[in-house]
Specification:
With 155 residues, the chain is α+β, with helices and mostly antiparallel strands. The protein is built from 3 helices and 8 strands, in the order H-E-E-H-E-H-E-E-E-E-E. A hairpin with a 4-residue loop joins strand 1 and strand 2 (32-38).
Length: 155
């Protein structure tokens, strides 16, 4: 079986000097290799082809047969690595916490493994009868949320 470390090393070599970053690598028991890369400005098909050829050139099909799929991390898919959080600062995201509560808001900042989402909450100001929408910053730990994903908007 092809080792994940081997694929990760090959991808790392190809990524050197490029603005792309590795999101995920998976290898199934039947040697189906899936590599996801991303870039702040999106992923070009030509680069996926180039990476695919690079990996294939460094593996021996005579030793082990494999299926290889190289692509971009899906736009509406949950974030898997911190760089994805950084790339979406200022954009609307949805967070599902460990308690199953969804929060939608603007990804305000990322600091290490924590991130801040500004969301609007109805609050009643003192002395007022009606609640008003107020911006509230909520801090989350990347390791302690079920998912965070970019909200695609067609507005």
């Amino acid at each position: 079986m092809i080792e994940k470390a081997t694929i990760t090393k090959l991808v790392g070599e190809w990524l050197e000097g490029k603005d792309y970053f590795l999101v995920d690598t998976e290898i199934s028991p039947d040697n189906k290799i899936t590599v996801e890369i991303d870039h702040a400005d999106g992923v070009w098909i030509e680069d996926c082809v180039e990476l695919s050829r690079y990996i294939e050139d460094h593996l021996d099909r005579d030793k082990e047969d494999f299926e290889l799929e190289v692509g971009s991390a899906g736009l509406g898919q949950p974030f898997k690595v911190p760089q994805q959080y950084i790339n979406f600062v200022g954009k609307e995201v949805e967070v599902l916490d460990q308690d199953g509560k969804k929060t939608k808001g603007i990804l305000k900042s990322v600091d290490g493994s924590t991130f801040v989402v500004t969301t609007q909450v109805k609050m009643r100001p003192e002395g007022k009868k009606r609640p008003v929408l107020t911006d509230v910053d909520m801090t989350f730990d990347m390791e302690k949320v079920k998912y965070t994903k970019y909200i695609i908007s067609f507005k």
